[in-house]
Amino acid sequence: MEKTIVTEGKTTNEAIEKGLKILNVSKNKVEIKVLENEDKRSFFSILAPRVVKVQMTLKEDLNNVKKTEEKPIRKEIELTEEEQNKAAKNVNEFLIDFIKQLPEDTTYEIKKDKSAIYVSMNNENLGFLIGHRGETLYAMQSILSAIAGKGLENRVRVILDIEEYKEKREKTLKELANKIAKTVVRTRKPVKLEPMKAYERKIIHSQLQTNNKVETYSVGEEPHRRIVIALKNNK
Predict the structure, then answer these.
(1) 208 close to 179: Cβ distance less than 8 angstroms
(2) Residue 70 covered by a domain
(3) Are 116 and 157 in contact (CB under 8 A)?
């Protein structure tokens, strides 16, 4: 019989931890649904206090979960030079005002090409704009994408990075993939990782695609889709 609870916290992670204590289970034993989507908050309200609600449901054993393949990343629209300039101008006009609210000496750089607008922000005191596992950073990235596309017919993709967080995160994920693969080989039991963004799952898949002892596949639905690392031909 399913058991479902709803918990609250100042962050998604805090709400999840409360639920795990109540259910007395590990994170990989529950399905998690964020009831209040943080990505829908306004840009300036990201810094304001909030209450996050999550729904947690006990699930069946990992070995009974159906394997599914990652969906191909959809082809991005190519921006004309005029669209690139307009999108970059939109983002720059916003950041000129927004940066005034950030720690002193914060800098940013905007680059553009036919596939996206790239924004990098730098200041050692910007950790609060990254958030737990990049949650706040990705919320900002989504909003900047909307701002960049103002007045344009085509959708504009903005790639935001803060203090080279994504590069550091990629290194961490590759190390995690190798470590978990060794654990799977040693214990001969599959391991289910925590929910990740699509681009982070791709890093795990790519890192282990040449490993002849383990395989990777994804289970669940967005935004709680996650990777399973298991022995090859493990029936």
Answers:
(1) no
(2) no
(3) yes
CA dihedral (32, 23, 48, 146) in degrees, to 10, reads 0
39 shares its domain with 96: no
User: Would you tell me how many other CB atoms lie within 10 Å of the CB of residue 159?
Assistant: 16
69 in a structural domain: no
Distance from C-alpha of 20 to C-alpha of 25, rounded to nearest angstrom: 6
Q: What is the CB-side half-sphere exposure of residue 61 using CA atoms within 13 A?
A: 4
Q: What is the pLDDT along the chain (235 residues), one digit of tens a residue?
A: 347 888 888 788 888 888 888 887 888 788 888 886 544 455 555 555 567 888 888 875 444 444 555 555 455 578 899 999 999 999 999 999 999 999 999 999 999 999 999 999 999 999 999 988 888 999 999 999 999 999 998 889 999 999 999 889 999 999 999 999 999 999 999 999 998 888 899 999 999 999 999 999 998 888 788 899 999 874 4
Range of the domain at 198: 164-235
Split into its structural domains, the chain has a count of: 3
Here the tokens at position 179 are 């470590």
